[in-house]
């Protein structure tokens, strides 16, 4: 009974973290793009005249979206049209279950892992759910019964097969180095030290794998420079027939994918919740210093470290989105099949050779 | 493969430019938020209703009619402004003034701002320097079209 209670608490906390971060990522995106372009950005939304840098903007947007008309075109397949955004949203939202937020904590003799679903196929689970998200897009294009929306979703499907192979293959080297698919074990393995002083993070052991995964994961988020399914600037995308809250779900899915990709990059390549030289007893610096910390402080530091790493990657992805133009269709195919896939195969080969030495 | 490496270096350069903009602008934003005044600001934005841009000395804004010392309009209803107006937005009706020095004055002087294109020809044409466009009033939007028709009472203010 208490186990189920703990699980429910964990689910609620993780989802709240996820959704609040998603809401504020929309604000952060507007602000960051503004700062990049020497502007100020959304700062007018206020409650009783108080406007703290426009921090109420996400709520204003949400209220606007809720009160918009829920428009369903007469020529669409109504059930599928309604189902598509929820599918899209669901498959992204469920991936948060496999992300480890911190080390195990002990309360009253019970060991609680800060992870909802610690499966031994955690990595495969996340990748599978992210890939299933494409069903929402294909379904939305199909159910809209609009040829432009359908073309958009077909572009999305074609984009999926050109980066998904590289996305999976780039992680094979990583799985060989930390021989596990369990995300918590991958993170624990990154806590060890290389040569006695250097944190054994994935990015130092698999730099090529990290770059390939970064490219493929950017394509996974379906934003500029890989926003072929949507193409909001000129070509018409898969949610042409959506409005109001359903469109909002698609948009939220985009932002949630940014967070999930950031969390994955953190977990796989930047040590997850690991802080360099921090163990359960406190800091143990390689030059001999020791700094004892209480278990709660250690946990707080670890969760904070995870969050900071995720924020940095969210920042990086927004920066990339506001820097590059969109890749042309054939350029994306070229990048996926001719560059990323051979490079990831090379990465696997190189890792195998180094490990067998 | 080598070509792709070249692209990759250019990608990094491009990201560097936007990241530099972000860092520099964020630095000035933070410094200004703390309260230190700097010459350069983090953004070039002018927050319009609160902050206003300084108008140029020759900026043409809402018209006004000049007055004589006794408060009567300087206008002698010569119709030069109404004639030169390319938008035909000025309507004048003249009346006789008992003062022989003046002889005529406008009993009705209407500028239809719906039509006015703010070219300033009326100001240049006026021989009496009776009409000027230097009120620095530029927020002229109204809720009804009638409010945009300015008569003598508004123009003389």
Write a structural description.
The complex is a heterodimer of chains A (357) and B (157). Chain A has one domain. Chain A is 62% helix and 6% strand. Chain A has 12 helices and 7 strands. In chain A, strand 3 (193-194) and strand 4 form a beta hairpin. Chain A is globular and about 70 Å long. The N and C termini of chain A lie far apart (50 Å). The mean pLDDT of chain A is 90. Chain B has helices at 2-34, 80-84, 121-125, 152-155, and strands at residues 64-65, 90-96, 104-112, 131-132, 149-150. The mean pLDDT of chain B is 91. Chain B has 157 residues and is an alpha+beta fold. The longest helix of chain B is centred in the N-terminal third of the chain and has 33 residues, at 2-34. The A-B interface holds A 32, 34-40, 319-320, 322-324, 339 and B 1, 4, 11, 14-15, 17-19, 21-22, 25-26, 29, 42-45, 47.
Q: Radius of gyration of chain B from the CA trace?
A: 27 Å
Structural class of chain B: alpha+beta
Protein structure class of chain A: mainly alpha
The greatest interface between two protein chains, and residues involved on each side, is: A-B, 14 and 18 residues
How much of the polypeptide of chain A forms β-strand, as a percent range? 5-15%
Q: Report how far apart the termini of chain B are.
A: 75 Å
N- and C-termini, Cα separation of chain A: 50 Å
Number of strands of chain B: 5
Domains of chain A (count): 1
Record the strand order, biggest sheet of chain A. 5-6-7
Q: Strand order within the widest sheet of chain B?
A: 2-3-5
CATH architecture of the largest domain in chain B: 2-Layer Sandwich
Strand content of chain B: 5-15%
The low-pLDDT segments of chain B are none
Q: Could you state the order of secondary-structure elements of chain B as H and E? A: HEHEEHEEH
Instruction: Determine the mean pLDDT of chain A.
Output: 90
Overall radius of gyration of chain A: 22 Å
Low-confidence stretches of chain A: none
Given this structure, which CATH class of the largest domain in chain B is correct?
Alpha Beta
